[in-house]
Write a structure and sequence with these properties.
Keywords: Oxidoreductase. The protein is of the alpha/beta class. Helices cover 39% and strands 23% of the residues.
């Protein structure tokens, strides 16, 4: 059985295993009711999961890429067959609106399995090199191949804001490359990841190739990262935790892929289409209730458009319905927990003390249940305020004025983060010129949309490495050179 009467089981070495640490409640952020009971793994069970992945790595890595791809394709089919209950669970665990749970959580997760069910070449010919005679041998022509090989056992440590798309974006390319995985989901919403494991089991993934261990204790994640059986850690979460993981990885030369915090700058120039800018920036208020690292939370508005932009963003925020995410007209659901609601609210109060003007939101919505935060706009900010420098991870946007292009770029880059920035301008040449000047892993030009084949990752404290599309196959692979005489 995958689930016992009193809670979810762990998935270790192809077996659904009772957790040594018992179970803890997973709470619906909208109703504050218990969704289910998640398992608390012990260190020994984490070690067993890592050992199982190590044992399974050899056979799985030697499996034909077509066979690995077929497993991923069948898993996508299982997810499609259970789409409605999976989306209902994701909504209950995260507080996402129905549209977000269906399209952006389960829908994107399923799409990522389908994407990596496509086999891509893993070898590239290198142009021949003519060598002169010397200490290394006679003159000759040397041929070479670059071969992408799997890393080994990958620890996938995932974030709470999307329990489908984020784990799938790690698991699917890692498996496609021939790696095995140990998944440690976020403690707030791990049940969806166990459904993903069920889908992979039903798709025929061999024993030990996929393992899932969860827990509220930091010891669970620490045990995964520290395991001698783990060759690589793929982590999505805060920069502070990423630093600690990086220190551990450095001691044993584990490979790392880190998607960390963000404080995305949106530069809005005087000639921008304000409707487009407001709609794009406004997604910060609604999408995952602002709990997304790619959000344009720091708006830099050129002075000629500053007042109009603040007014229109405030109107946009005030019109958004906050409430029960299961209601079809709700746009802004709750944040993940009471503790996180308190954290976001404390930043709004801090902004007031720092001199920011609250022009929309700023008060807790009047609901008896649910961890709701009103979409909040802070104007007249400066770039040295903590609300402008630190990741709030909620539906809060700050607005800062600037005069010219150079000042706008300087303000945007005056940040510890560099994940995704945005530029709105009617002058396309300027928009692309500014984009190239920004120290960010990605830049949206007149859009907050994404191309899912484009490399994704950050500069500075926003992370290490790139994934998405073919870049994820590189991220979960090592490149080997094979050289021979022509």
């Amino acid at each position: 059985m995958r689930e016992a009467a009193d809670g979810q089981r762990l998935f270790v070495g192809g077996e659904w295993t009772e957790p040594d640490g018992g179970h803890y409640a997973v709470v619906d952020p909208a109703t504050e009711e218990t969704v289910g009971w998640a398992p608390e793994a012990s260190r020994d069970q984490v070690r067993a999961a890592c050992a199982a992945a190590r044992e399974a790595f050899g056979p799985w890595s030697r499996t034909a890429p077509e066979e690995r791809a077929a497993v991923l394709g069948r898993a996508a089919g299982v997810i499609a067959a259970h789409f409605a209950p999976y989306a209902e669970l994701a909504q209950a665990e995260t507080g996402a609106t129905t549209g977000t749970a269906r399209a952006m959580q389960v829908g994107v997760g399923m799409a990522r399995f389908r994407r990596y069910a496509r086999v891509e070449p893993a070898e590239w010919a290198i142009p021949p090199q003519i060598n002169e005679a010397g200490p290394m041998g006679r003159a000759g022509v040397m041929g070479a191949l670059a071969v992408r090989q799997p890393v080994g056992v990958v620890a996938c440590i995932t974030s709470y804001n999307n329990p489908w798309a984020n784990p799938a974006g790690k698991i699917a390319p890692a498996l496609a490359m021939g790696n095995t995985v140990v998944v440690k989901p976020a403690p707030q919403d791990p049940l969806s990841v166990y459904r993903m494991a069920e889908a992979l089991e039903a798709a025929g993934v061999p024993r030990g190739v996929v393992n899932v261990v969860s827990g509220r204790s930091v010891e669970v994640g620490e045990a995964v990262v520290e395991s001698a059986d783990v060759d690589m850690v793929s982590f999505t979460g805060s920069t502070a935790v990423g630093r600690r993981i990086g220190e551990v990885c450095g001691r044993s030369m584990k490979r790392q892929l880190m998607e960390l915090g963000g404080k995305g700058a949106a530069l809005v120039f005087d000639d921008a289409d304000l409707g487009s800018a407001v709609a794009g920036i406004g997604t910060t208020f609604s999408f995952y209730s602002g709990q997304i690292c790619t959000a344009p939370t720091r708006v830099l508005a050129q002075r000629g458009v500053y007042d109009r932009l603040v007014e229109r963003l405030a109107d946009y925020a005030r019109r958004l319905k906050v409430g029960d995410p299961r209601e079809p007209d709700t746009v802004v659901g709750p944040v993940i927990s009471a503790a996180h609601r308190d954290r976001v609210e404390s930043y709004v109060e801090l902004g007031r003390k720092e001199g920011a003007v609250v022009v929309a939101g700023g008060e807790r919505p009047p609901y008896e249940r649910g961890f709701h935060v009103a979409p909040t706009l802070l104007a007249d900010c400066t770039n040295d305020m903590r609300v402008a420098r630190e990741e709030i991870f909620g539906p809060v946007v700050v607005v800062i004025p600037f005069d010219d292009e150079d000042e706008g770029v300087a303000l945007a880059d005056d940040s510890d983060y560099g994940l995704i920035d945005y530029v709105w301008s009617g002058d396309v040449a300027r928009a692309f010129r500014v984009a190239r000047r920004l120290r960010a892993g990605g830049v949206g030009v007149n859009t907050v949309g994404r191309n899912m084949e484009a490399p994704f990752g950050g500069f500075k404290d926003s992370g290490v490495g790139r994934d998405c599309g073919s870049y994820a196959l590189h991220a979960y692979g090592e490149v080997q050179s094979i050289v021979w005489p022509g």
